[in-house]
Amino acid sequence: MVMDRAKSLLLSESAFYAAAVSSVVDQEKHYSSSSSTDNRRAGFARRYSSFDLSTTTHNENVINVAKSFLSTSCPELLTILESHSDQKSAKDRLIKIGRNINATLRYSHEATERFESGEELFPGIWTEDEAEEVGNEVDRKMKSDGSLQLLVQECTNLAKMLTSSDGTMKCPTVRYGRTEIQMPIVSLGCMRFQQTWNRGGKPVKSADQIEKECQENLVNILKHSLHCGVNHIETAQGYGCSELQIGMALKQLFDEGVCKREDLIIQTKGGISSSTKKSDYKSSILQQIERLGVGYLDLFSVHGLNTEDHYNWLFDHGEEKGNLIDALKELRAEGKIRHIGFSTHAPAHIIKKAIESDVFDYLNLHYHFMGSYTASGDGTDAQLEGNTENIRLAKKHDMGIFIISPYDKGGRLYAPSNLAREIMLPDLEPMEYGSLWLWDKGAHTIVCGAARPSDLDQPVLAAIRSSTDKAKEDLAVVSRRIKEREEQILGKDWAESWHVGLPNYSQSEQRGFQIGNIVWLYNTILMYGMLDFAKDRYGTLTGNAKRWDSNKTWKENVFANPGFNWMPGCAYDEAYDYASELKDVPEQNLPRVLEAMDFVHKWCAAKESTSNDEKKEGDEAVTIPLEYQTAYDMRPWTAFPER
């Protein structure tokens, strides 16, 4: 029942691997003695893989695995968690540790078993050198032990962070461009802890509608955030009742003496439309300040400067409605706003235009090690794809650089593929690699959208470690590994030129195709196995394509769907002739561009498929490769606004 190989390794030199296997073996014995024959027959690999741990019962099993592992590998953290005042957070942390252990053991077992059985590897996933190592029992054992050593180091540092009172385990700060604010390099994003998005049903508009459990969780997140040195709180009018609940929480924290207003960096955002008047925009922002109860905003962002029209509403909105940027300038002159910025999902050339206006002190944008999300495939310079040029331009204008969603839109790093982990371990987990990469590229702060206090742990620990020589060395090692893999899996020429001539929706005047994005998803799947991430993004393209009305103009289609300019573009159409759309693509790239679009459509279009199951393609079942499957999910709960 329990893999024989695991038993044989209990006496090995790999101490952490042995401790992990022993922890799971103990739990397996307990489970077997108290479960039905059918459950026992389910087997070790699937029962203890993290994707199969959605129920409370299974979470209790994985908590026991974590406790057993910590009892020998990091007893100080176990002691802290057992006596922690917030037992929900303590439980969350144990689940995450257990899922990490399970993911490492599961992949090691299945990859070795596959290798020994002579099963062919899925084509295109591994280079020759990688394929030699991935299933070799000795190599796997060493790598798994190294991965678990990394987990133990994280647990050791977490224990220090949870109990630190001398300021040595706090998030570092940097100068936030010309704002001169000392900004923590991790920010607290506030779109996952509020009670509701207010997008359906009865809206939450007053304090008496807030559930006690939700508000207590929010307060605990803020307290943990401040304990970790993360004092930048970033929300938006569009985040449902987030501003209302933050205002309530801040009053409590001020009254309790936890912090003062001047200790915090408060940022919110407000959207605009074609009908917005300058006077109305100004009034709306004043209402946001009142909801937050803070008197003034350190930072205010135009929320969703996503199109040419948004830019024009700010700077050329006509005499009757007034230029909306003037409302922000007036509020700044009145001391209600200290610094003006913008948040964007725009094509790269729109972002560039906003930066070059030199009106904004900072910007929120997508930029990640594996792409620039909605701007991937964009770029006005053939050598600078996505938002790479915009990052350089923002630095030139001395703007603060805030990275949106590094752990979700940056590759769902809280639920990485086995392949992404295999590429980066044993040096770094994907979340830490994504963080270190961004700080190395000049990002001032990266946001963590916390649904529970423990969500801040990994980002803050990465931030604390980021300036050490070891972190820099680990980043360099993994980056070299990725570069070498890129040249072998994608090919050097393709890796450097794939985006040249590709249109995204703003250049696709007939159907709004997001071709650059689709080809980027192809690269992302091949390089990192990020199938679930690709399916999430492609799902928005599929939805947009279904709603596209050929009887309407391009602009009418873009603004008919409120979500289009946030998650823009349409999916691949197998029946469409793309000759005119691809006229600027280099001839040598054209066959692979068509292949890439077809590949993404076939793998990502089916809604019913999940990476840890089987994808249905007509009547034919296609097994998802082990490397494309999700290794673990660091969300052992459902966030309040998603309930």
Describe this structure as you would to a colleague.
By secondary structure, this protein is α/β, with parallel strands linked by helices. Helix content is 49%, strand content 8%. The strands form three sheets. Strands 3-4-5-6-7-8-9-10 form an eight-stranded parallel beta barrel, surrounded by five helices. The radius of gyration is 25 Å and the shape is globular. The chain starts with a helix and ends in a 20-residue tail after the last strand. The model is unreliable at 1-13 and 35-57 (pLDDT under 50).
Structural class: alpha/beta
Taking pLDDT < 50 over at least 5 consecutive residues as the criterion, the unreliable ranges are 1-13, 35-57
Count of discrete alpha- or pi-helical segments spanning 4 or more residues: 24
Question: Gap between N and C termini, in Å?
Answer: 37 Å
What is the percent of helical residues? 40-55%
Number of strands: 12
Task: Give the biggest sheet.
Answer: 8 strands, parallel, barrel
| Shape designation | globular
**Rg over C-alpha atoms, rounded to the nearest angstrom:** 25 Å
Overall average pLDDT: 90
Beta-strand content estimate: 5-15%
The neighbouring-strand order within the major sheet is 3-4-5-6-7-8-9-10
Give the topology, please.
Layout: H1 4-8, H2 15-34, H3 37-41, H4 44-47, H5 56-73, H6 75-82, H7 87-117, H8 128-134, H9 137-163, E1 173-175, E2 182-184, E3 186-189, H10 212-227, E4 232-234, H11 242-256, E5 265-270, H12 278-292, E6 297-303, H13 308-315, H14 324-333, E7 337-343, H15 348-356, E8 362-365, H16 388-396, E9 400-403, H17 418-424, H18 430-440, E10 445-449, H19 457-465, H20 469-497, H21 515-528, H22 531-547, H23 554-560, H24 590-604, E11 614-617, E12 620-623
Parallel strand pairs: 3-4, 3-10, 4-5, 5-6, 6-7, 7-8, 8-9, 9-10
Antiparallel strand pairs: 1-2, 11-12
Helix pairs in contact: 2-5, 2-9, 5-6, 5-7, 7-9, 10-11, 11-12, 12-14, 15-16, 18-19, 21-22, 21-24, 22-24
